[in-house]
Design a protein that fits this description.
The complex is a heterodimer of chains A (90) and B (549). Chain A is α+β, with helices and mostly antiparallel strands. Chain A has helices spanning 40-50, 79-86, and strands spanning 7-14, 20-23, 28-29, 59-70, 73-76. The N and C termini of chain B lie far apart (55 Å). Classes of the chains: A alpha+beta (90), B alpha+beta (549).
Chain lengths: 90, 549
């Protein structure tokens, strides 16, 4: 079975309330399903673009996360990021 | 309890106003995150996985009922209805919005509370015996000295940029319920041969990456010199503590590199050269502070007698709770009641707003309005008449606060771990929940057993000093747990030893069960886990644990 391609997305926490958010094509969304996925080579430019725009940025400390698409759903590779996306496991 | 004077109130009001303006400027884009982060951390505000987290200081773990009701209000108004009591006797709220934090701090200020110095390279909350003022074995109530230390160390201008955070613990009794030896400075109130009360001073304890126990730097320090001696220690640390390497910046590393004898020489020389009188604590100053913590009326409360015996016989749940959670009090007819926040299957240390309200009400009705928080993440009502125990137990049971497991296997200490904390490398809470549910059915047979879990090497769950300690680590994206055995945080403090390779998350319950089985098989009469471990060594535990591997 072919392994799904590992893609990249950009995430951050929303400034005013700290909620995890994901960079979309035109802004930020609290739903990981809305995240725009890019290939590894495009990740750096995507992150830079996420940090541009009028100040203040509505988010804190954006960074790149590895993720795959499985059964149509975006799944971060790291458990930490899955917990951020879906909430505490308890 | 210590009550703020007009200076304290004015300072806190000004601080809240200052912070409110800082938040306004951050939200308006006038401050960058780099500029704002140190300001919010100075006010106890962290950014974690799902939201901001506010850590509120509970000085030496002492709360009034009014303050606990305010914490309940904050839980309900600004969080998701609960708070998390920590191993530093503080409380954390995990679902906080930055834009609401000025209002939270303003609310806290109305009950003489704040979040200052709950973060950053500063003095943190002084840990104290949660049974202070009530313990049978107490030499003297440590709270007046804790408050004196709090006032000295809050915004101390010379120590505003320490190499790293700094934690002090103080016990007024020989039984150590404050984990004194795992603190940067540990203080025990001691009586010398002349019968005078002073302090044994220890330096260099701490957990984290390099777990070390504090060593004695002075066996007896007269009370009047408490602050000048602390200041001498801090000056040596401030001067020689490393600032080039975060992992080597705590005072324990300085003690380790210099040796306790050399550190003692340095401190004593600094102290000898100081103007001690400037920081001297005259007897009347100590007495003034002690008036905030009046000694209990030594008049015995009515004996519980026949009614108590009948209740113990009729209510097995009550009898178990009295046996496990109720401790003797220095005044006859009274008891110290320990309230477990460790119901098996629940999150260790979590408490809902409704539960906080109830405990505050019960403290007013039965216990002179005072509550303590323990470093084991439980609550204490320090002065309850024994004749009121049955009614108190019934009320606590109605709110799932009467779990009779203080000191037992299901009363697990756990940090928030990767479910909340941005530093964590693995989860702590679900492991604690599974273990507690698995061990609870036989915990009375097991007896005193302290299991402590940390979700990363920073060791907020104090795993190094658990009888059984678990450290969550990430191995190629999978959660593993390193097991240490033989640790202890009491007056026989010891750092546990790693037993072998870390085990997978789904093996941890079986692994701990196996360790417990070995202990039950090998223990001598009356022997607690650390004693058995010291006597038999690691080998039988290791053989049983890794036999199948």
């Amino acid at each position: 079975m072919t392994q799904p391609e590992v893609m990249r997305l950009v995430t951050a926490n929303r400034l005013r309330d700290g909620v995890p958010v994901y960079r979309t094509s035109d802004g930020w969304s609290p739903a990981i399903a809305d995240a725009r996925l890019v290939v590894e080579d495009a990740a750096e430019d995507f992150l830079a673009a996420s940090q541009s725009g009028p100040r203040p940025l509505p988010v804190v400390a954006p960074y790149v996360v590895e993720a795959v698409v499985e059964a149509g759903k975006v799944r971060p590779l790291a458990l930490r990021e899955r917990i951020r996306a879906h909430g505490p496991t308890v | 309890m210590y009550r703020y004077d007009s200076y304290d109130h004015r300072f806190l009001e000004e601080r809240v106003a200052q912070y409110r303006d800082q938040v306004r400027r951050r939200l308006a884009g006038l401050l960058s995150e780099d500029e704002f982060k140190p300001l919010r951390l100075m006010n106890g505000l962290y950014l974690q996985l799902h939201a901001y987290m506010l850590r509120v200081a509970i000085p030496y773990g002492t709360l009034s009922s009014r303050q606990l009701r305010m914490l309940a209000h904050i839980a309900r108004r600004y969080d998701r209805g609960f708070g998390h009591f920590t191993t530093r006797q503080n409380i954390q709220f995990h679902w906080i919005k930055l834009e609401e934090t000025p209002d939270i701090l303003a609310d806290l200020a109305t009950v003489e509370m704040h979040a200052i110095q709950t973060s950053g390279n500063s003095f943190r909350n002084t840990t104290a015996d949660p049974w202070a003022g009530a313990a049978v074995d107490e030499i003297e109530d440590p709270r007046p000295y804790c408050e004196i230390i709090r006032q000295w160390s809050t915004l101390h201008p010379e120590f505003s940029f320490l190499p790293r955070k700094f934690k002090i613990a103080l016990s007024g009794a020989p039984s150590d319920r404050a984990a004194v030896r795992i603190h940067d400075i540990g203080l025990y109130l001691r009586r010398n041969e002349a019968g005078e009360v002073g302090f044994e001073v220890l330096v260099g304890g701490g957990l984290g990456r390099t777990p070390l126990l504090a060593e004695t730097v002075r066996t007896f320090l007269p009370k009047r010199h408490l602050l000048s001696y602390l200041e001498a220690i801090l000056r040596i640390y401030n001067q020689y503590g490393r600032r080039d390497n975060l992992y080597k910046s705590r005072i324990k590393i300085l003690v380790q590199s210099l040796g306790i004898a050399r550190l003692r020489d340095e401190v004593e020389a600094e102290w000898a050269a100081m103007d001690k009188e400037e920081l001297s604590l005259p007897e009347d100053a100590i007495a003034d502070m002690a008036r905030h913590f009046p000694a209990m009326d030594p008049t015995p409360a009515p004996a519980d007698g026949d009614a108590m015996r009948a209740a113990l016989a009729a209510e097995p749940g009550f009898a178990r709770w009295v046996e496990q959670n109720v401790a003797p009090h220095k005044v006859p007819g009274y008891a110290i009641v320990n309230i477990s926040l460790k119901e098996p299957g629940a999150t260790p240390g979590d408490c809902t707003g409704e539960q906080m309200e109830l405990v505050a009400d019960l403290a007013d009705r039965y216990g002179k309005g005072e509550i303590r928080v323990t470093h084991e993440q439980n609550l204490v009502l320090p002065q309850i008449r024994r004749v009121d125990l049955l009614a108190l137990w019934r009320s606590l049971a109605s709110a799932r606060l009467a779990t009779a497991n203080i000191g037992l296997a299901s009363a697990i200490i756990a940090c928030p771990g990767m479910d909340y904390c941005s530093l964590a490398t693995a989860r702590s809470i679900p492991v604690a929940q599974r273990l507690a549910l698995a061990l609870a059915p036989r915990e009375r047979e097991i007896g005193d057993l302290q299991i402590k879990i940390s979700g990363c090497i920073n060791a907020c769950g104090h795993h190094h000093v658990g009888h059984i300690g678990l450290l969550g680590v990430d191995k190629n994206g999978e959660e593993f747990y390193q097991i240490t055995l033989g640790g202890s945080a009491d007056e026989h403090a010891a750092v546990g030893a790693i037993i072998g390779p870390a085990v997978k998350s789904d093996e941890i319950v079986h692994s701990v069960d196996t360790i417990v089985d070995v202990y039950l098989r090998l223990r001598a009469d009356g022997e607690r886990f650390p004693e058995t471990y010291r006597r038999v060594g690691a080998k039988p535990f290791k053989e049983a644990l890794y036999a199948a591997h």
